[in-house]
Amino acid sequence: MYVVDADDVAHDVDRLPPRAARAFAEFRAAVELSPWTVAPSINPDNPYAPVRLHLLQSDDGSALISYLVRDLERIVDVLRLQWLG
To answer: What architecture (CATH level 2) is domain 3-83?
Structure first.
């Protein structure tokens, strides 16, 4: 299991609409178990790159989440959460 560090985006998470907040909780649970399979690399030339980009979708709207997988430490850093509406 991985530890998810979302401290840098906590303010953004708090501002999500209710259904999007639930979708974020589901995203978080998924990356705790298998961060490599939740989203593709942001670099199409390197599918094993540790920075990933996930499109979060809910009935309230969508958000982009970028995260970094630090495999040796078993940590996932959520770098950015951008609400798209």
So the answer is: 2-Layer Sandwich (3.30)
User: Mind listing the pLDDT tens digit for each residue in 45-81?
Assistant: 999 999 999 999 999 999 999 999 999 999 999 999 9
* pTM metric for this prediction: 0.94
Separation between Cα atoms, residue 70 and residue 77, nearest integer Å? 8
Question: Which of these, 49, 57, 1, lies nearest to 27 by C-alpha position?
Answer: 57
| Strand pairing category for 51-58 and 3-5 | unpaired
Q: What token pair was written down for 83?
A: 């609400």
Alpha helices, DSSP H, located in the chain: 10-14, 18-33, 35-38
